[in-house]
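Q: I'm building a small set of examples for a reading group on sequence design. Run inverse folding on the following structure and report the sequence directly after it, with nothing in between.
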């Protein structure tokens, strides 16, 4: 923003300078030369200068076009780099998503195993309680055996590579 203000200020100063020089030359020619034929001859002397400044303006225009072409090329390269980085980011995000899904599955399995362990602890308490009848103890032993088998099935489903 600051650079734009500086450039605009410089441009304004240059325009004002050119207008002042042009106005001054007009006044000097009108006041310094008496008749119109002398003034015309004097003005013709500056034809070469006019051509010089036109040529310089054209060269400046060509230079500006070349600079803009270079800037556009830099922008294209930057956009290409940004696209590559966005692709890398998207790929990393996909890997992260897969890892999170696996983590959720592992947490579900761990929760299920934890719940089954709590059931086994409950059945052990029922079996160890001397106040329970033999039917309750037998039922608890059977349920504990089924729960242990369910834990074994869950553990068998987990591959060796998943445990790492």
């Amino acid at each position: 923003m600051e650079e734009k203000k500086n450039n605009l200020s410089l441009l304004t100063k240059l325009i004002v300078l050119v207008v002042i020089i042009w106005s001054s030359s007009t006044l000097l020619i009108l006041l310094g030369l008496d008749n119109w034929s002398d003034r015309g001859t004097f003005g013709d002397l500056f034809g070469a200068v006019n051509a010089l400044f036109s040529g310089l303006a054209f060269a400046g225009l060509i230079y500006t076009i070349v600079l803009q072409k270079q800037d556009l090329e830099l922008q294209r390269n930057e956009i290409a780099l940004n696209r590559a980085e966005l692709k890398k980011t998207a790929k990393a995000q996909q890997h992260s998503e897969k890892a999170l899904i696996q983590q959720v599955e592992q947490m579900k399995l761990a929760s299920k195993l934890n719940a089954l362990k709590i059931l086994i602890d409950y059945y052990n308490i029922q079996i160890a309680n001397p106040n329970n009848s033999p039917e309750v103890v037998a039922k608890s032993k059977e349920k504990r055996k089924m729960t242990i088998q369910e834990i074994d099935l869950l553990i068998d489903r987990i591959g060796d590579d998943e445990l790492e």
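The longest helix spans residues 47-128.
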